[in-house]
């Protein structure tokens, strides 16, 4: 998922024994089920006093039948608290859709992690590489990533999730508005990279899915916590007018660098920011803390955006 704090009591071997289960496949543009973490209900609230674990929260979500071994081939600091892992996938049948997450199995760690993929399906197809961005917490999988993971460390992954964007060549063009809060950027960055691949394929081949414009609104406490900001600016420059981004910071204390200044607004994402993008062919994807999702969903509802055009995933 787009989070790192997941509390789980299942062992890797227990989950691996269940890997033979057959799961349904999905071919539609966007598939979204009602579940504990991913819902179209704009007035949903979090009532549970106990933090449900990753496997409990995602028990009713789609999971691929393939579990793949992977080897860490790159580790970088995306921010002071977030590490970006580059993983070489061993299983050539391993696939995912932009926006999905993985079950994260670590040898010697009984707790199963869950992290949203932050790379594009195209990178996996081209290079056999998948990337995760993991924020440091004391939760065992996240703690392992930050304190024990090294180059050539081996893990296992299984993809899952009903929050994704996967248009097919015959589908009607749509516009997207992506709204991210904190590390909720992870699945939306994957979608953004996938859209860049679609634009690139369209320009190079002249066929395939014709993508509409994409607007990203990304909020964090300060610019140092804006993940992937250089990559995002690069995508804007590569696809002017097709991909645009607006960064929002809520607790900025330091000077904002010249490169970011034109794209940064101090303050939260507001109805004024979003209302200009309302149209019948626009889809809205939201990922961030539950209070943010509930607030933005309410704003969209008040602006008349149909519920079936709003998709979100909660991290906690």
Automatic annotation (TrEMBL):
Keywords, sorted A to Z: NAD, Oxidoreductase
Record-annotated FAD-binding FR-type domain positions: 65-192
Entry annotated with the keyword NAD: yes
Any one Gene Ontology cellular component term annotated for this protein: mitochondrion
Domain of life: Eukaryota
Listed GO MF terms: oxidoreductase activity
CDD domains named among the record's database cross-references: FNR_like (cd00322)
InterPro entries: FAD-bd_FR_type, FNR_nucleotide-bd, Oxidoreductase_NAD-binding, OxRdtase_FAD/NAD-bd, Riboflavin_synthase-like_b-brl
Pfam families in the cross-refs: NAD_binding_1
Protein name from the UniProt record: Oxidoreductase NAD-binding domain-containing protein 1
Organism: Pterocles gutturalis (yellow-throated sandgrouse)
